[in-house]
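Researcher: We plan to redesign the surface later, but first we want a full-length starting point. Tokens attached.
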């Protein structure tokens, strides 16, 4: 066995300072997550309960198998916007009757569960994950439809919601709608395009136009029940496949549907027995320095994540700023690429390209652990072909067909973010640690570039450069880029699938790997042209 030998001093002052800084960041994120859990606030939670209804997360808890995990996705969606943190919808992956399912639950305590731009982005990301990983989808529906003041940002792209449902059905990936309340206007097509529909008696309301709209459009007088009630749809229209007596009964029926899906994973099963890491996962809270300019050894992270801390390093003496190698994680074989000293040189790029090709030949999923400032710049590096070699790595990542998982541990700047499989390169899941930062470049570098350009422009015009103005500009730019590089800002924009506690990395990656193996694991048959 090639067990990693840790050199971290967990009793040292540096480790203690790192840990303190990480725990402080985790506390900030937990406070923001609490806002999503709180829903629309106590007033609206109480009103919802007085109507005899369960909260969104209570519905999910009853739906899941007892004591099974729930991998919540994008919990900080809408952070930093005018919309409620969480985006008025809960999404995540949980086990129902032994089947891993994508679960999407409207939160009716937030503006009646109305969909705003963040809700839409979150729902579309959930559908993307379900499609890529062959997950049955269960929608727990209670929504007033679109948030009308933001309709211009919702209406046109929102059509993908229904397109995704029908595409899933065509791919033989089941879709289930449990309707607890309103599902009106465009939202009526959600049960209309689902494979299975359960409606709660005297609660569910599904119609294209409610009584007031029908009166305005046709002059017809109608009521909610005759127009779109659950019993009408179960007995008359046929839209409801099952009529539930109450919410608990709807959840029971939903679990019964999943039980009869005859669902099987297509990917290989994990190895039946595996060892836990040799080192304590709790150490991960103190490994990453609070100052990202200070390098850290990613092997220390790998040692606390992979089975038995056993890691077969590939090309350990070549391109040493990038660590590559093979391991198992919860019994699943994986290849790992982890940034060591931040900068990617030509050697690291070529090493990564070969490693990605090898993973595709052996149908092995890849894990990318980010801490990079990007590809190296400078005359000698340009002349040595850094553009060609960086392009090779990005080419390999772009055309790789094995599943990718990305974790932003520290910096993830510039094209290095691309080469390490950032969001635009389609990782199945992308998570961030509270220590992560991502941008075109670091705040000081970006502000410095703008300063140099402005100084040169003033010189070309024969003007005296305003040094005081320069200082003010640099300070403002640094502050802006720093704020926009932070994980909560990026998570709010859904540029990751969630900020995770570093100590949970092994568990989160294990759950993600299990999800990925619902589908076939097959590498690329070819790559684009590599410019040598």
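Model: Full-length starting sequence:
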């Amino acid at each position: 066995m090639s067990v990693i030998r840790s050199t971290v001093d967990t009793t040292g002052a540096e480790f203690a300072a790192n840990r303190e800084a990480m725990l402080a960041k985790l506390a900030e994120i937990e406070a923001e997550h609490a806002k999503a859990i709180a829903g629309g606030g106590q007033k609206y939670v109480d009103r919802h309960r007085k109507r005899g209804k369960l909260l969104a997360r209570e519905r999910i808890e009853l739906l899941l198998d007892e004591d099974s995990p729930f991998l919540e996705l994008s919990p900080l969606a809408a952070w930093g916007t005018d919309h409620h943190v969480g985006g008025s919808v809960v999404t995540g992956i949980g086990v129902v009757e032994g089947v891993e399912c994508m679960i999407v639950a409207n939160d009716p305590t937030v503006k009646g569960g109305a969909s705003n731009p963040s809700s839409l982005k979150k729902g579309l990301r959930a559908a993307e994950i379900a499609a890529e990983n062959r997950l049955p989808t269960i929608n727990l529906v209670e929504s007033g439809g679109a948030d009308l003041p933001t309709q211009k940002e919702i209406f046109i792209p929102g059509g993908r919601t229904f397109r995704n449902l029908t595409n899933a059905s065509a791919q033989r990936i089941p879709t289930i709608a449990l309707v607890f309340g309103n599902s009106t206007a465009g939202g009526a097509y959600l049960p209309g395009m689902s494979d299975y529909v359960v409606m709660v008696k005297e609660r569910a309301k599904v119609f294209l136009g409610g009584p007031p709209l029908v009166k305005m459009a046709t002059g017809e007088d109608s009521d909610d029940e005759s127009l779109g009630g659950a019993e009408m749809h179960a007995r008359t229209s046929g839209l409801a496949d099952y009529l539930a007596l109450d919410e608990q009964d709807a959840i029971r029926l939903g679990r019964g549907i999943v039980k009869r899906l005859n669902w099987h994973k297509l990917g290989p099963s994990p190895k039946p027995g595996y060892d836990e890491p040799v080192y304590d996962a709790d150490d991960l809270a103190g490994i990453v320095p609070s100052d990202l300019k200070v390098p850290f050894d990613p092997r220390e992270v790998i040692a606390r994540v992979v089975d038995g801390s056993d890691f077969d390093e590939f090309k350990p003496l070549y391109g040493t700023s990038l660590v590559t190698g093979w391991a198992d994680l919860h019994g699943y074989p994986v290849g790992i690429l982890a940034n060591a000293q931040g900068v990617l040189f030509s050697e690291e790029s070529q090493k990564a390209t070969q490693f990605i090709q090898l993973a595709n030949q052996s149908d092995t999923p890849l894990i990318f652990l980010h801490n990079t400032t990007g590809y190296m710049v400078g005359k000698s590096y340009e002349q040595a072909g850094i553009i060609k070699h960086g392009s090779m790595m990005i080419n390999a990542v772009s055309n790789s067909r094995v599943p990718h998982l990305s974790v932003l541990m520290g910096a993830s700047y510039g094209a290095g973010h691309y080469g390490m499989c950032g969001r635009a390169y389609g990782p199945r899941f992308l998570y961030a640690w509270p220590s992560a930062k991502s941008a075109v470049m670091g705040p000081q570098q970006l502000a410095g570039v703008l300063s140099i350009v402005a100084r040169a422009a003033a010189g070309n015009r024969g003007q005296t450069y305003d040094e005081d103005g320069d200082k003010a500009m640099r300070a403002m730019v640094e502050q802006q880029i720093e704020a926009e590089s932070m994980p909560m800002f990026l998570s709010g924009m859904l540029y990751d699938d969630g900020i995770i506690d570093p100590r949970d990395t092994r568990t989160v990656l294990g759950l993600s790997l299990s999800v990925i193996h619902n589908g076939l694991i097959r590498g690329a048959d070819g790559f684009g042209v590599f410019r040598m």
